[in-house]
Amino acid sequence: MAKKTKTKRAYVYKEKSPLEHYRAGAFIVRCLDSRFWRVAKHFIKSLGIKHPDPAFPAGGAKVFASPFDEYETEHYLGQIAKSIKLHHTKKVMLFSHHDCGAYGGFAKFKNDPEKELDFHRAEHIIAEEVIKDKFPNLEVETYFIDEKGIIRTN
Ligand SMILES: [Zn+2]
């Protein structure tokens, strides 16, 4: 006879999580670079956005404007589709940031902040078009983060 195995839940950390379903205030796409997590989080909170659905790919908005490979854009468009289906999302907020390694860092812009911002503005125009093409009714907002704060680019 097979030995009866008991599966135990051995918690390594305990904290309660809410189980209520929700409507996402926005789908957020921002870079995994942790230097700019805090400011983005505070900004989103300051807007009163509740239950954001987040995605943290390297480069943030880059996945829609100049993806690393052809599958990246499709993958994140799929994530937006799921957020809409599951959490009735009506808005996407795209972020990219200063000195982003996925873009080659600040050095790629010869340490010129205006050059860097202009480049990101152009990227955001493309990213917004790619998302609007697939989801015409979705509101898309684009932002650039630097060491002093957050700039709206559309
Ligand atoms: Zn980055």
TrEMBL record:
Q: Where are the transmembrane segments?
A: none
Please name one Pfam family that this protein belongs to. Answer: Pro_CA_2
Lineage per the UniProt record: Bacteria, Candidatus Yanofskyibacteriota
The domain of life for this entry's organism is: Bacteria
What is a single molecular function from GO for this protein?
carbonate dehydratase activity
Organism, per UniProt? Candidatus Yanofskybacteria bacterium RIFCSPHIGHO2_01_FULL_41_53
Q: What name appears for this protein in its UniProt entry?
A: Carbonic anhydrase
Q: Which InterPro entries match?
A: Carbonic_anhydrase_sf (IPR036874), Pro_CA_2 (IPR046871)
